[in-house]
Write a structure and sequence with these properties.
heterodimer; A: 114 residues; mainly beta; 7-stranded mixed beta sheet; 0% helix; globular; B: 113 residues; 6-stranded mixed beta sheet; 4-stranded antiparallel beta sheet; 52% strand
């Protein structure tokens, strides 16, 4: 158990819908990262937050957005869902935002878009 | 820019045999490198990491990796495979502007009894 929690574990929805994925980092970790894992794209970095502020953006679509709240939990919002958005979404956390900080991964949320 | 290439998407070894999983990186700055393992239906777990210092890094579960700058490699090894080592293994490099990880495409390890 990494100490990072993600809810829900599974999510099934229809095209065009909007969903919210939630992540609680390990106690004491200020940085949160979101990754998408799909069969064709592999593990892709989406976005990073540090202590409530956006720190870095990766291959995140405009239909996707995220935020980190004062209690440090984070939410990833996916809207206008398409079939291709079906994937495993991981959240990770680390103590700092600097290079080399070990990232601890949650168990993931499996999103299925029908 | 940083990137990682993992040679061999599937590797099979016999129980007790040497495990060798290959990772080559590309980085415009001195790389920070990581190996993670993913068991079925689970998240990623850190095996080991290299940032600076000793080039031979020892991790959990008997795994180790050696950073070779001249070969731009960070191969993962274990002297004797165990059935419980069957999993997906990912090599990653940390960016120089932050701490986003660029992951390789993964290597699925099968251990044959």
């Amino acid at each position: 158990d990494s100490g990072v929690t993600q809810t829900p574990k599974h999510l099934i929805t229809a095209t065009g819908q909007r969903v919210t994925l939630r992540c609680s980092p390990r106690s004491g970790d200020l940085s949160v990262y979101w990754y998408q894992q799909s069969l064709d794209q592999g593990l892709q970095f989406l976005i990073q937050y540090y202590n409530g502020e956006e720190r870095a953006k990766g291959n995140i679509l405009e239909r996707f957005s995220a935020q980190q709240f004062p209690d440090l939990h984070s939410e990833l919002n996916l809207s206008s869902l398409e079939l291709g958005d079906s994937a495993l979404y991981f959240c990770a956390s680390s103590v700092g935002s600097g290079r080399g900080n070990e990232q601890f991964f949650g168990p993931g949320t499996r999103l299925t878009v029908l | 820019a940083q990137s990682v290439t993992q040679l061999g998407s599937h590797v099979s070894v016999s129980e007790g045999a040497l495990v060798l999983l290959r990772c080559n990186y590309s980085s415009s700055v001195p790389p920070y490198l990581f190996w993670y393992v993913q068991y079925p239906n689970q998240g990623l777990q850190l095996l080991l990491k290299y940032t600076t210092g000793a080039t031979l890094v020892k991790g959990i579960n008997g795994f180790e990796a050696e950073f070779k700058k001249s070969e731009t490699s960070f191969h993962l090894t274990k002297p004797s495979a165990h059935m419980s080592d069957a999993a997906e293994y990912f090599c990653a490099v940390s960016t120089n502007t932050g701490n986003q990880f660029y992951f390789g495409t993964g290597t699925s390890l099968t251990v044959i009894p």
